[in-house]
User: Which sequence fits this backbone?
């Protein structure tokens, strides 16, 4: 099971997450308490492995600004977490994660409108788009056959429920931010536990 740790703001957390087994790190460039300046993100990303997914998170940003931040930071994946259209989402030269808010099974029909490389299924928006620590009813994903779509499960995941989320939704990847924080800051112990829980479930299934 692949794991994305979102809301990275310093090199120590980034390197610790990678050492624990993270496959992707997310850097938030939208309005958020986890927002990071592009120049600072670039300094961190230049110290990370080439093959790691370095994801930039945007909400209703212009293509011009996204392209500029891609150039500054060297992120290699764009996550669109707003109301971006299918046309806008397909206008980039690097892979795109289109985030969709899921409140009911009907919301999953939006998947067929986009041609993005990945889809992140998150809880309905709260104060911010994502990172609100609230989960949705994962069982509704059982009603949808995703075929070749790479689904990233997000929203309210933490070390205690990530195994349940994986068993219920069978995603391509799981994404976590607030669920591995203590008092608003990334908790390296929680990150390690989260990744271990996701990996251990996979190990159990292989046996």
Assistant:
């Amino acid at each position: 099971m692949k794991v994305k740790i979102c809301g990275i703001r310093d090199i120590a957390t980034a390197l610790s997450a990678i050492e624990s087994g993270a496959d992707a790190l997310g850097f938030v460039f939208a309005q958020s308490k986890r927002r990071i300046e592009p120049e600072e993100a670039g300094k961190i990303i230049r110290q990370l492995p080439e093959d790691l997914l370095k994801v930039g998170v945007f909400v209703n940003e212009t293509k011009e600004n996204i392209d500029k931040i891609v150039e500054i930071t060297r992120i290699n994946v764009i996550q669109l977490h707003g109301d971006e259209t299918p046309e806008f989402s397909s206008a980039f030269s690097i892979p795109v994660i289109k985030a969709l808010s899921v409140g009911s099974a009907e919301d999953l029909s939006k998947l067929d409108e986009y041609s993005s490389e990945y889809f992140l299924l998150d809880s309905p928006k709260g104060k911010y788009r994502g990172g609100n620590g609230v989960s949705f009813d994962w069982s509704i994903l059982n009603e949808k056959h995703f075929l070749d779509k790479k689904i990233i499960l997000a929203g309210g995941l933490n070390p205690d429920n990530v195994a349940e989320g994986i068993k219920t939704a069978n995603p391509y990847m799981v994404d976590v931010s607030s669920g591995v924080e203590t008092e608003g800051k990334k908790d390296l112990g929680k990150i390690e536990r989260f990744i271990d829980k996701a990996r251990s479930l996979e190990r159990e299934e292989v046996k």
Q: What stands out?
A: DSSP finds six helices and ten strands in the chain. The chain has a mean pLDDT of 91. The first strand starts at residue 2 and ends at 6.
